[in-house]
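Hi, here's the filled form for the chain we discussed.

Project: internal
Contact: R.S.
Residues: 949
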Amino acid sequence: MKIFLKILAAIIVILVALIFILPIVFKGEIIELTKKEINRNVNATIDFSDMDLSLIRNFPNFSLNIEGLTVVGKGDFSADTLANIKAVNVVIDLFSVINGETYEVKKIIVDSPKLLVKIAKTGQANYDIALPEEEKTPQPETGETSAFNLRLKYFQIVNATVVYEDNESDLHFHIQGLNSSLLGDFSQDLTNLKTNIEIGSLTARSGGIEYLSKASLKYKASVEADLKNSIYTLGKNELTLNDLQLAFNGSVSILEEGINLVLTFKAPDNSFKSLLSLVPAVYAKDFESITADGKLTVDGSVKGIYNENRLPAFDINVLVDNGMFAYPDLPKSVTGINIISKISNKGGDADNTIIDVSQFSMNLGTNPFIASLLVKTPVSDPDVNARVKGTLDLSTLKDFYPVEDELSGTFIADITVKGKLSSIEKEQYDKFVALGSVLIQNLNYNSTALNKPVEIASAQLNFSPQYLDLVSFKMNVGKSDLSANGKVMNYLAYVFKDGDLKGKLTIKSKYFNIDDLLAEEKAEKENMETESEEKVSEGSPESSVIEIPGKIDFAMNASFDELIYDGINMKAVKGKVSIKNKVLKLDKLQMDVVKGLMTVSGSYSTVDLAKPKVDLKFNLKALDIPSAYNQFAVMRTYLPIAKKASGKFSASFNLKTNLDQQMMPVYETMNGAGQLNTSKITINGLNTLLQIAEALNISQLKNLELDKLFVKFQFINGKMAVKPFDIKYKNITANIEGWTSFDQSIGYVMGLDIPRAELGTNANQLMEDLMKKANALGGNFELPDNISFDILIGGTLSKPTIKTGLAESGNDLIKKAKEEVIRQISEEAKAQARKIIAEADKQAKALIAEAEKQANYLRLNADEAIKQLNAETDKQVAALMTEAKKQGFVSELAAQEVIKQLRKEADSQIGKLENDADKHADALVNTAKKTAAGLKKEAQKQADALLTP
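And the returned structure, exactly as it came back:
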């Protein structure tokens, strides 16, 4: 018995030891395999902060825990974090690890994943991180299958956040608090899958319309899965969206030609209040306390193949009979709600879809509202029959809906639209009916979200087949006023066929203060809350980019007597503004600003919302310098000297830059160029000038009065580069060039020209002594009246650094003066040396030119002699041939032999003449060149002697 107990104890000790030892032994192998598998064949950066192996947590299986898992895109999505997962726990069968051939994964738990799914307008998706086949890591051809065998029985997601942004289809989903579990044995051909999905907050938006706002969703289902044949049959299941419950029956199967759907659904609970919960405005306002009544029917079916080119047949029916709802503390209710609607498609093409809302009516308190809509062939040629009619006294809205804001006025709508869109496109307006108007009168709106109440005295929009006519629009926001009129074209194609909305508007205002429109603190708080929900990556900055909408083509003539924005007061603002393809363009927008005149042309683009761009041209005339410094951020960044200056300036320049998410310039991308000129200006107490004045011991440089300046500059990759320009102050002149960076660092060179009298007695005496010594050696130099030298200005705008030989002491000043005298002497010697060399070069060129002239003369004489010889030969040949022809054919043959000899002798003489002429000509030129080289050599010796100390 004792022996048995000892053996048992030994076994227990060994097992416990193995529990701790095995994770250590196999950890390296599993980590290496894991990294290899997740990084192979992906175009992304995948990393994790830690990995842990344990046998205790899920004994007798391995528990692999990966923490801080991130997936970051590359290329166009390099700034996006596709996934940021707190932890992933994978349970692996211990004996499959020991065996080493197949690893069986039994359980996966994903903890707090944050996913950002993005699809660009081009269709490119950030989740498409698989490498092309030709770029994938080649696998050894061993014939072996993968080392992983998924015998998964449990999969769970805990507290997930998902942001889905499909810019191609304009679909946006934001999911928070997603918890999901899936149970089943994926290693079996037939298995029963049980899933449970819960979403705490679901927001869905498309086309600028929010269809769901922070809705809750629950889905429980049991699915009989034929994994071998990819057939999934729904058992008991239930979908709950807010308060609406839906039950599904049928099956889904995966075929080669697509997904085969055979589904039916219905709402088992026929409560109208359940449907009401899907209305965001109602669900957000004390929904549980609402009293509702009425009959609801929701059902439908989906049958057929779904793929990229085909839709299954489907129909969705929603009927409401005599519905009503009321808030318990309000005197009136919304009654008489009747809806008959059906969306159907016989299958095949999306153009077969029919949207039929034959009845939609209700009484908003005592205000009746009716509408109907029938749309056929929505893709190829929308055939529309729609009617909207209603009158609403806005002051009674608080009687049936809890409104915290103050609201009054009248809203009247009566619109009928009927016909095919093709009739409008063909300008067959007689075949299309579009009548009615929308009228707003005496609207008053006051909200905590606004600093000032909004008043709309009148706004009228009339409908016609060709356009919407904005007859009038008159609005006041506090003291601000705004009026507009114009036409909006192509509105039907915009609504029903994704066309561009076009318009021409005229906007006028006597006084408009944009800063009064929103309560700044509240707006910032709301933005922060919204963005914190919508951003997946921790630490992402809140965005305040103003997006220019797409599918808009508007031209506006704007005129503001006074306009205030971001604290800048602008007067007599007028110009043309256009919006097209997500680009806002300004055409000679002119305004009086900071006591001067400014004209702006250019564009602001949000084609890439992550990188908005501006491309602007400015023309500024007679602006007040200190006022411009206070109001323009660019001047505070690049020209802080304006803070210490007074006067006026004019400028013209172009500027291109990207903007960040707070609408501020990304200075590294800033490029442009321009010029600036000033009136007479004064500069007092500038830090740089104070340091220069102290270094030179010239106090008058501390405060300057400068004549007119003219400066050219460029913006290059975040730096403002200033081209050389001259300034003059009293009897001191300077030339300045350099740059200022967006980070406030600077680099300038100031070339100063200062009278000797300003440098003091010691320096002047030294220079006179040096000059006397130089002249005693045979020179004839005079002491210069001005001393020139450079000052290097570096550091930052707030803490500049000055580098000059005059900065430290009187000895340095003397040294600089000595250098100046030596420079003057050197300059004289250099000038004389240059003169000697130039004279020798002149003589050399003259010699060579004369020689070439004589050579050309010799060649011309030779050419003339050759011409005479040829003429004489031709004369003799002609005489011989004439005499020979008289004597017959035999004489002609004999004459030709004589002629050949004459030609041969003439050619020999011609060759001799040419050779003699070239020989004598070349000899003349070569002699001249040798003489010229000797002159230059002697001149260089004299020059070198002058320049040798």
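Let me know if anything looks off before we file it.
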